[in-house]
Amino acid sequence: MQLRRRFISLVFSLFAIVVCHAQINTDRMMNIARNALYYDDYVLSISYFNIVINYKPHLYEPYFYRGVAKFYLDDYSGAIIDCSEAIKRNPYFPNSYELRGLAHINLRQYADAITDYEKATEMSPENRSLWHNLVLCNIELDSLARADSVVNTIIQKWPHYADGYNLKAQILLQQKDTTAAETCVDQALAADPNNVNALSAKAGILMSHEQYEDAIKYFTESLRLQPKSAGNLINRALCNYHLDKYRDAMKDYDLALDIEPRNFVGHYNRGLLRANVGEDNLAIEDFNFILSIDPDDMMATFNRATLLDNIGDYRGAIRDYTTVIKEYPKFLYGYERRAAARRKIGDIAGATRDEEHVLKEQIAHRYGYSTPTSRQKNKTRKKSEIDLNDYQKLVEEDDGIQEKVYESEYRGRVQNREQEATLIMPSEHIYNIYKELSPDKALVYFEKAYADAQAGNVSDAIEGFTKVIEINDRFAEAYYNRGILRLLIDDTFVAIHDLSKAGELGIYQSYNIIKKNQNIKKKQSAEKIDK
Question: What local confidence, expressed as pLDDT, does residue 487 receive?
């Protein structure tokens, strides 16, 4: 989800906090660390905050700022841990709750985020972004009554705040009350005619009413103010499609995919549009991409099958038809298409079996089985819908008309140096230090665990690295290796905790691995919420 860097100056104004302690080196380390953070050198800042924490473990500021650095590196679990340590030392600093809430949001832990935002609003009631995010978290959990109560507070406190009315509209849209939602959006536009969220919401409501020409006007105005919005480009493309303006629709899909190359809806809809204008090979490229990121998408598989059929790749088409039929054995149109393809390659027996199966099922259903032969115009489906008969319908996002945009000043450029995720041994210097600390224990267990890992004995290796950490809880390489191994067995939550600790202790490539695996963790978190 998108976090806006709206009040970035707030974080950096906090840098003015003076740490008045006896040791001048601690003050200097804090200044160096905060400067590194200011200039987005997050890993360097963490190393200096570590020094301060080692010398002055009772201070809350180094934990908070180290949490900020970890947040920038997408180490949301590490940010939560550091904010919690900061709160233990100073429970009256609202920024710690705000940052921890944002980290929870990124992990889709909305209930925990709500707890943090409620605490932060008590201490900082004039911070509008706290109230804004509190509403969105309640919407995410479908606590619409609570969300509405909070948004009423926002409107009362800030009657000219356009996004307050947008939030109200978002709640009403979730309740399917588009008429009242449109009234709120109009109020938002009256407060701020250039409010991008209100313009997008107005366009979306008009699109839902099939007023496509008017919707395009609002999407275009929104894109004038925020040209990099892939979502608005895709929605405008849908409007152009419904108006048979295929060239304009194609242009919007191309622009959207330049901005978000991995956008599912963009590729799916562009693939259908390309197929519609006879660009079968280009359409296949789009569906190939979709299936490279989601090989279980049967609608994309079936569309690719029909396209392969069109260009004469009958064996490839049969392969895809078979994949779909195995997943959906009642989808008779799949059998019909496969039968036709089999006849074209001379597999008469296979084609006959498919045709007999279809006939038998049609008789069994008495009234016959209606199969789609062409795309139904002026209709779309939600991305999550799985009625295979809708394989040729364009896709809409499930999240609704108005995108949830969290407000935050905690945003920066993420360092993303590519590193290989391989097991590591301590450097010779570190090895000697550890040897002096525990010559007969930690290193012995480490070497044994490392050998087990290399031999593929993952469980034994994890147990061995755990023993190392029990002996020496500053053994960074043990945390790192245990984290890598836990990723191998899909224990992503715990693995990221280990990698965060390794990064904190100086193995900075950990953050690159955390970043790459954060989407997996978000998905696991969402599944836990659903349960």
Answer: 84
Specify the residue for token string 């032969």: 373
More confident residue, 79 or 427: 79
Six-digit token string for 138: 């309640």
Instruction: Give the CA-trace dihedral at 428, 430, 433, 438, to 10 degrees.
Output: -100
Q: How far is CA 242 from CA 117, 208, 210, in A?
A: 42, 12, 9
Per-residue confidence (pLDDT) for residue 432, from 0 to 100: 61
Angle at 91 between CA 88 and CA 92, to 5 degrees: 155
Question: In terms of Cα–Cα distance, which of 201, 204, 134 is closest to 165?
Answer: 201
pLDDT band at 507 (very low <50, low <70, confident <90, very high): confident
Q: Which tokens go with 311? A: 């260009």
Contact 161, 154 (CB under 8 A): yes
pLDDT in tens, 138-149: 999 999 999 999
Pair of tokens at residue 216? 């395009």
Q: How far apart are CA 81 and CA 85, in angstroms?
A: 6
User: In whole angstroms, what is the distance from residue 235 CA to residue 217 CA?
Assistant: 12
Question: d(Cα 74, Cα 519) in Å, to the nearest integer?
Answer: 10
Give, in order, the Cα–Cα distances in Å from 381 to each of 95, 377, 398. Answer: 41, 12, 9
pLDDT digits (tens, 9 = 90+) for 388-400: 777 777 777 755 5
- pLDDT above 50 for 20: no
The residue ranking higher by pLDDT, 305 or 439, is 305
Q: What is the pTM of this model?
A: 0.69
Which residue carries 């233990």 as its tokens? 88
Hey, what are 479's tokens? 């945390």
Cα–Cα distance measured from residue 493 to residue 408, given in angstroms and rounded to the nearest whole number: 25
Which residues partner with 380 through β-bridges?
A: 394
Beta strands in 184-295 (DSSP E): none
C-alpha dihedral, 44 to 45 to 46 to 51, nearest 10°: 100
Hey, which residues does 4 pair with through a beta bridge? 407
Residue 379, SS3 per DSSP: coil
